[in-house]
């Protein structure tokens, strides 16, 4: 069997893979002095395994997904700062449709200009092959980094002859702050996060399997969270706590969101009445289905169909 080659995406050619829309050009055309920052980037749902030839850091403002860095897998969501070293194998799979945030790409030459230690970036723990590529942030820390990123983005969009040095200083400040924070945290987050991701993935596989009944034309019969927890060999509290720590939502919230998404698809595409859709989705009372749908989407099923001219 022929082994698939993992491509290396260069700084002047990766945009088509990473973004659904056009983005401003990097500050310098030369790969050696490359810098760029983008806001509200709409990432594709899937980016297959690849490498970059430059450094990257990003923060998700909206959305979530599973990002693989080297041999480690992380569930990425709000309040996380992520780091990718050049030539590290990575991939991305979105867990939500809309993905927005800040993205910074830069070369080692750009960062180290005027810097005495030319190996500084290579020595940082979050740029190591087996290091922790994700820094979990408090709300206050998130606001600090978002403020720095906004300043950088504004400077990038209105660049002058002095902007490269200003952006370099801002980038160095951000990296130094993240390094200090990483040392304080000691990265105890890493092992627990990896185990949590495995449990969340197993939980999702269980309830998604139950949703397949809709494709078979049979009614949906979701189990209680306690039953899923028992199948996974953990307590209901442990499952809820783990899902909450990884995704920011309870186990029940994940299922309700998925159920509401299925309901929306049925309302859009199924040639059925609202009552028929309610029964197919496991609701014994169509009025309860209407209340559930409105609590999840802000509109009742009938209001949604009217808004879509259905």
UniProtKB/TrEMBL annotation:
<protein>
    <submittedName>
        <fullName>AraC family transcriptional regulator</fullName>
    </submittedName>
</protein>
<dbReference type="InterPro" id="IPR009057">
    <property type="entry name" value="Homeodomain-like_sf"/>
</dbReference>
<keyword id="KW-0805">Transcription regulation</keyword>
<keyword id="KW-0804">Transcription</keyword>
<dbReference type="InterPro" id="IPR018060">
    <property type="entry name" value="HTH_AraC"/>
</dbReference>
<dbReference type="InterPro" id="IPR020449">
    <property type="entry name" value="Tscrpt_reg_AraC-type_HTH"/>
</dbReference>
<keyword id="KW-0238">DNA-binding</keyword>
<dbReference type="InterPro" id="IPR003313">
    <property type="entry name" value="AraC-bd"/>
</dbReference>
<dbReference type="Pfam" id="PF02311">
    <property type="entry name" value="AraC_binding"/>
</dbReference>
<dbReference type="InterPro" id="IPR037923">
    <property type="entry name" value="HTH-like"/>
</dbReference>
<dbReference type="Pfam" id="PF12833">
    <property type="entry name" value="HTH_18"/>
</dbReference>
<feature type="domain" description="HTH araC/xylS-type">
    <location>
        <begin position="224"/>
        <end position="307"/>
    </location>
</feature>
């Amino acid at each position: 069997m022929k082994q698939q080659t993992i491509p290396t995406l260069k700084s002047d050619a990766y945009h088509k893979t990473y973004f659904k829309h056009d983005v401003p050009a990097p500050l310098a055309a030369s790969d050696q002095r490359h810098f760029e920052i983008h806001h509200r980037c709409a990432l594709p749902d899937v980016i297959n395994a690849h490498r970059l030839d430059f450094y990257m850091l990003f923060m998700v403002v909206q959305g979530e997904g599973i990002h693989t860095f080297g041999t480690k897998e992380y569930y990425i969501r709000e309040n996380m700062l992520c780091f990718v070293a050049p030539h590290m194998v990575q991939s991305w799979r979105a867990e939500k449709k809309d993905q927005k945030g800040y993205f910074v790409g830069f070369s080692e030459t750009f960062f180290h200009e005027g810097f005495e230690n030319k190996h500084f970036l290579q020595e940082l723990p979050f740029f190591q092959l087996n290091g922790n590529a994700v820094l979990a942030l408090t709300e206050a820390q998130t606001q600090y980094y978002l403020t720095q990123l906004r300043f950088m983005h504004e400077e990038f969009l209105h660049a002058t002859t002095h902007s490269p040095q200003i952006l370099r200083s801002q980038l160095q400040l951000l990296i130094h702050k993240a390094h200090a924070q990483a040392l304080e945290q000691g990265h105890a987050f890493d092992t627990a996060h990896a185990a949590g991701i495995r449990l969340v993935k197993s939980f999702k596989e269980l309830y998604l399997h139950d949703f397949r009944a809709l494709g078979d034309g049979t009614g949906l019969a979701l189990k209680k969270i306690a039953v899923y927890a028992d199948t996974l060999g953990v307590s209901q509290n442990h499952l809820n706590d783990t899902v909450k720590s990884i995704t920011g939502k309870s186990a029940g919230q994940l299922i309700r969101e998925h159920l509401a998404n299925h309901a929306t698809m049925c309302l859009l595409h199924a040639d059925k009445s609202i009552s028929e859709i309610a029964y197919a989705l496991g609701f014994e009372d169509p009025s309860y289905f209407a209340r559930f749908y409105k609590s999840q989407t802000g509109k009742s099923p009938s209001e949604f169909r009217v808004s879509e001219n259905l």
